[in-house]
Amino acid sequence: MTTAIVTDTAAYLTADQIAQYPITVLPITVILGGQQYPESDLSLQTFYDYLKTDQELPTTAQVSLGQIEEAYDRLASQGVDEIISIHLSSGITSFMSNLRMFCETYTKAKIYPVDSLVASAGEANLCQLAGKLIMAGQTAAEIVPQLLALRDTQHVYFAVDNLSHLARTGRLTNRSAMIGNLLNIKPLLTFNAAGQIIAIDKERTMRRAFGFITAHLKADLQQVDYPVHATVIDANNEETALRWQQALQSQFSALRVSRSALGPAISVHTGEKTMGVFWQRDWQSVPD
């Protein structure tokens, strides 16, 4: 039995992570002024320079079922029997529901769709755990329940400079909770159990937003009995991300801390300078 992984660029896996495991990454499309770019081909500099202009606001298009079928066919032709397909939250895109319907009639390999219910580090960690377990000889049927168990431990909180991008693209489920332009306010958001983005609070500064997030992290660490891995996530805010990473490592000595950057496909919705922290059971601690 040969098993492979398919995901999308919203996982923001590094080249080294992709090379380590049997992972195929399909690009989400970013549309700038009518010009379409596979996210993997669009530089951050080009994207953020475009955001600073008065041109038409960028949008995205999810991975198409044509791209999915081509990727699955290619893997099947290489001898892959089963594919674990891990993707962006169904709470912010219809892709997962379309994929599940497609998989009902696909016959060249057995497909196991997995909804990350988030994006970025949450998606990436599921892919890496799946890769680790594949390398250990486990089958997809054995792996998927472990992915869902890992997903059940996830928490994410993030702060955006303003809500304009999320409100414009319709990705904020309860935008009425944040009425007004919130000048000089950093809205705090999370993903709910359905994988939808919801506003939960607001702070005056990113420093205070970080305090809000670390308070939730501390409370969670006191309740769990497994190692935790936290990822600091930023949208073109590297200096702040490094400061947050160092602060987490200093404040929580037992915590494994890494970093990940949001690319254009997610930053279209969150805007530049977004900061967040994602944490869950450390996928490296899951026995193989």
Explain what you see.
By secondary structure, this protein is an alpha/beta fold. Helices cover 37% and strands 25% of the residues. It is built from ten helices and 13 strands. It has helices at residues 15-20, 44-51, 65-77, 95-103, 121-135, 140-151, 164-169, 206-221, 238-251, 264-270; strands at residues 3-8, 23-26, 29-32, 35-38, 59-61, 82-87, 110-115, 155-159, 186-191, 197-203, 228-234, 256-261, 275-281. α5 packs antiparallel against α6 (140-151). The protein is globular, with a radius of gyration of 19 Å. The two termini are 17 Å apart.
Number of strands: 13
Between the first and last Cα atoms, what is the distance in angstroms?
Answer: 17 Å
Structural class: alpha/beta
For the largest beta-sheet, the strand count, sense and barrel status come to: 6 strands, mixed
Order of helices and strands: EHEEEHEHEHEHHEHEEHEHEHE
Mean pLDDT: 92
Q: Going across the biggest sheet, name each strand in turn.
A: 10-9-8-13-11-12
Number of helices: 10
Low-confidence stretches: 176-181
Shape: globular
Instruction: Provide the β-strand percentage band.
Output: 15-25%
- Overall radius of gyration: 19 Å
Helix content: 25-40%
